[in-house]
Design a protein that fits this description.
GO terms for molecular function: zinc ion binding. This protein is mainly α and about 80 residues long. Helix content is about 45%, strand content about 5%. A two-stranded antiparallel sheet has the order 1-2. Residues about 20-35 and about 40-50 have low confidence and may be disordered.
């Protein structure tokens, strides 16, 4: 399980790095970015969880907060279902 999680994490990070820089969503996908902006942590958290679970940029996982693309229904990092509570 740990190996699969790690491999998915690496793949998602490698695939998502271009998107992160292009859209400015580094705080939503990178713990380094959020830790360096301590003053904006609360506002970023609210932004990462919009009232609707579907946005143009994607949807934030409720478990790990990764911003997944709107085309997937399972988190690319932790494999939590988008609609499962």
């Amino acid at each position: 399980v740990t190996r699969n999680y790690f491999e998915n994490l690496v793949q998602a990070l490698e695939a998502g790095l271009e998107d992160v820089h292009a859209t400015g969503q580094a705080a939503a996908t990178s713990s380094t970015a959020t830790s360096s902006k301590k003053g904006g942590t609360k506002s970023k958290k609210k932004h990462a969880k919009p009232s609707s679970d579907h946005t143009d940029d994607g949807w934030p996982c409720e478990r790990c907060t990764y911003l997944n693309p709107p085309s997937v229904d399972v988190c690319s990092i932790c494999e939590k279902s988008r609609y499962q509570t």
